[in-house]
Write a structure and sequence with these properties.
- The protein is α+β, with helices and mostly antiparallel strands.
- Helices cover 28% and strands 24% of the residues.
- The protein contains four helices and twelve strands; from the N terminus they run H-E-E-E-E-E-H-E-H-E-E-E-E-E-E-H.
- It has helices at residues 26-42, 87-90, 106-120, 185-208, and strands spanning 48-52, 56-57, 66-67, 71-75, 85-86, 96-100, 124-128, 139-145, 148-151, 156-157, 162-167, 170-175.
- A six-stranded mixed beta sheet has the order 1-4-6-7-8-9, sandwiched between helices.
- A hairpin with an 8-residue loop joins strand 2 and strand 3 (66-67).
- The radius of gyration is 22 Å and the shape is elongated.
- The protein starts with 25 loop residues before the first helix and ends in a 9-residue tail after the last helix.
Length: 217
């Protein structure tokens, strides 16, 4: 009887960058970064991480077998950033991937990446075309059912518990449990500014009534 032991070269390097630009246009970059930040805030405090345009290595010992999703969400792993993501070290493939697609990346996104993500067992694959170059409705999602991607028709990301919608040149996310919208960084800043303005008006009114707002009981 012969026993074969697989030995992986410990000196194999897994690069974290290929020198390529993050996105092909400002719209694609903005959509990537906004999606990253919104979902990161949503998952804060949970065992999960959200990464953008970082290498996903899926075959130990074969550093050329890699892909860089625009945004990938991995649940049930320690939170925090990574320089790259190795499936065999983390013990999880991403549950959800978002690609900000265009006419120039249509074939790669719709064929090569879709087939790869399906084979890896990634539960959901969302394509967002912010310019509407080849996806008329701008957003198209696929859900893994019986190991095959099926078109998502309800607009729901089941692993995230969110409804995903097109809002101009960005994606909008809404909680399934409360219907609450997840605010973008810009919307959060605007909300904070409005709250400060309301507080200033209240303080001004109190002073007009002879009340010091800094010494309220």
């Amino acid at each position: 009887m012969t026993t074969t032991i697989k030995i992986v070269n410990p000196n194999i390097e897994y690069p974290s960058s290929d020198g390529e630009p993050l996105a092909e246009s400002y719209l694609h970059l903005y959509a990537i970064l906004t999606t990253l930040e919104v979902i990161k805030q949503y998952l804060a405090g949970r065992q999960a991480t959200v990464l953008a345009d970082q290498f996903l290595y899926y075959a130990q010992g074969f550093p050329k077998l890699r892909v860089a999703p625009d945004v990938m969400v991995i649940l049930d792993v320690p939170p925090g950033g990574r320089d790259n993501y190795k499936v065999w070290e983390e013990g999880q493939v991403p549950q959800v991937v978002f690609e900000m697609t265009s006419q120039g990346t249509q074939k790669q996104d719709q064929e090569q990446k879709k087939n790869l993500y399906e084979q890896l067992g990634i539960l959901e694959y969302w394509l967002f075309d912010p310019k509407g170059e080849w996806i008329e409705e701008k957003l198209r999602g696929y859900r893994l059912e019986d190991e095959t991607y099926q078109l998502i028709t309800d607009g729901i990301s089941q692993p995230l518990g969110l409804t995903v919608a097109v809002e101009g040149e960005l994606l909008g996310f809404y909680r399934l449990d409360t219907g609450e919208k997840l605010l973008t960084p810009t919307e959060l800043a605007e909300q904070l500014q409005q709250e400060r303005q309301r507080a200033d008006k209240l303080a001004e009114y109190l002073r007009s009534q002879g009340i010091d707002p800094n010494n309220l009981p």
